[in-house]
Automatic annotation (TrEMBL):
<keyword id="KW-0012">Acyltransferase</keyword>
<dbReference type="Pfam" id="PF00583">
    <property type="entry name" value="Acetyltransf_1"/>
</dbReference>
<keyword id="KW-0808">Transferase</keyword>
<dbReference type="Pfam" id="PF13508">
    <property type="entry name" value="Acetyltransf_7"/>
</dbReference>
<dbReference type="GO" id="GO:0016747">
    <property type="term" value="F:acyltransferase activity, transferring groups other than amino-acyl groups"/>
</dbReference>
<feature type="domain" description="N-acetyltransferase">
    <location>
        <begin position="7"/>
        <end position="153"/>
    </location>
</feature>
<feature type="domain" description="N-acetyltransferase">
    <location>
        <begin position="165"/>
        <end position="309"/>
    </location>
</feature>
<dbReference type="InterPro" id="IPR050832">
    <property type="entry name" value="Bact_Acetyltransf"/>
</dbReference>
<dbReference type="InterPro" id="IPR016181">
    <property type="entry name" value="Acyl_CoA_acyltransferase"/>
</dbReference>
<protein>
    <submittedName>
        <fullName>GNAT family acetyltransferase</fullName>
    </submittedName>
</protein>
<dbReference type="InterPro" id="IPR000182">
    <property type="entry name" value="GNAT_dom"/>
</dbReference>
Amino acid sequence: MMTPYPIRLRRPKPEDAAVVCDLVIACDVEDFGSPDFDLGELLDMWSGFDLQHNVWVAENAGGQIVGYAFLEEDSEEKLFSYGFVLPSARGTGVGTALLTAIESRAEELAAASGRHKRLQNVVPTLREDAQTLLRTRGFVPVRLFKRMSIRLEAAPAAPDLPAGITLAPFLPGRDEQDLYAAYIEAFADHWDFAVPGFDTWAEQIDRPSFRPEWWLIARGRDGDIAGFALGRMREDTLYLNQIGVRRSFRGQGLGLALLQTAFHKAYAAGQPNISLGVDTSNPSGAFRLYEKAGMRAVYEVTVAEKTVQPGSPA
């Protein structure tokens, strides 16, 4: 069914959250075959977004929300964006309207800072219509990411920890600074990594869904953090946001042990589904590690990018 015109873009309101969540889930089902989102994740994201400047919903003439997009100011140089169009409203200009709003905001930010911005947008790799739209607007594909998952049909084996390594949950009020430093070191060689300020990084601890028991910390003999696996339990899955091992502790199997520990804890808690996202070209070999642990790729997205110069249209 075609979307009635005109399309109106506006800022989201708190009462829109459930409808926007349902829209994203509908897109997931259409594009990937199953949902990969929940209301808690949306509320987490909105708690850190500038809703009045960097987030949009698109309404049709009947007031139905048929599109949603956001932009994140990842660093002084990089902007990250994502847009969603209700499957029944695709091909009617909603995606174009949202992308135009994203580009206009990128122009504003470039002009205000007096420096260029790298504007990134993410689309499902198999969505040719979305890929074509980005190409016509000057975006170039720069990276591929896969979502990987596993469903545990039986209790997993206990993890095999490297000698001298101990595991413990994250302790709020004690571990923030040490974990932040370990995160910076572990992710320093990842593609396009931008070092966040401590306060920005720590915002995730204040989000509604944060539970310290799903943040696993590995320590070496000297007590220093050797690695970590930071997860978020959703209704339908344990999602592992970040898995990292500091350079001096690599090559001992710690990454696999952290992953297996997360599997073990999730299964014991009655959650057999675990998922994560991975850069397919990650230099640490993370993709192969997750395959070794039994995880399989379920879908892929493309990150595309363009440069927005101050004083010039995007």
